[in-house]
Amino acid sequence: MDTKRWKSYVRVELGGRDKRINIPSTRAAAECLLRSWPTVWGPRHKQAREACIAVLKGEQPPEFARQAFVEAAREAGILVVGVFPG
Fold first, then answer.
1. Which of 12, 25, 38, 70 is deepest in the core (most CB within 10 A)?
2. Is residue 65 part of a domain?
3. CA neighbours within 13 Å on the CB side: how many for 82?
4. What is the pLDDT of residue 19?
5. Is residue 1 in some structural domain?
6. Is residue 17, in this structure, part of any structural domain at all?
């Protein structure tokens, strides 16, 4: 199964510093957006979901979903800043 892996993963906090997870791919981002998102879904969350769908359908490159996921995590206040190799 092609997970649309990213060049570098995104780290988010889901429930505090002890619950940091690494999101390495579009599929993992989509699952996090739908199953683990800790806050109210805002406009960036919707854009990130749509971006993940576009990538999984092959309509956009994986980095399109990564950038949208970063913006959604920033909006939600759960983004851990840094560049993490994939």
1. 12
2. yes
3. 12
4. 87
5. no
6. yes
d(Cα 55, Cα 74) in Å, to the nearest integer? 20
Structure token pair of residue 59: 């309509």
Confidence check: pLDDT of 86 > 60:
no
Q: CA angle, corner 11, sides to 61 and 14, nearest 5? A: 120
Task: For Cα atoms 39, 43, 47, give the angle at the middle one, nearest 5 degrees.
Answer: 105
CA 35 from centroid of its chain's CA atoms: 12
| Gap between the Cα atoms of 2 and 41, Å rounded | 27
Matching residue, tokens 């970063």: 70
Q: What is the pLDDT of residues 27-62, one digit of tens each?
A: 999 999 999 998 889 999 999 999 999 999 999 999
Query: Does 28 map to a domain?
Result: yes
